[in-house]
Design brief:
This protein is an alpha/beta fold and about 140 residues long. Helices cover about 55% and strands about 20% of the residues. The chain contains 5 helices and 4 strands; from the N terminus they run βαβαβαβαα.
Length: about 140
Amino acid sequence: MNAPRLGVVHARFNEEICNALLAAARAEIARAGAQAEFVCVAGALEIPLALQWLAQSGRFDALVALGAVVRGETYHFDIVANESARGVMDVALDSGVPVANGILTTDDEKQALARKDKGAEAVRVALEMARLKRELAETWR
């Protein structure tokens, strides 16, 4: 069997946190022997559209979303956190391509940096779901 192909969309906003998530994801992809292509977008709200484009390409077994939404003093946090999560789920359900949501939503940067390994965890989830999809497809033949 060929190595699983992942599409990874990562945000630039909250750069230090997102770079840490991306480094953890890259290390896990290498450890798993998977192949990946990476797309960088401005922030969490742009992630779902880029995921949709990758899903529509038909080139990926699973997708990974990486970003960080850190609570501020306004309602904007809730909008970005909720709508990015909804968008990620919509892509998965509409396309049938597994999407692992590694977009952190935290109260502060310290909490986010403490969760940098969520990048690796999102890769593991994406690979697990890609395997499950393949196994189910083989069972239903």
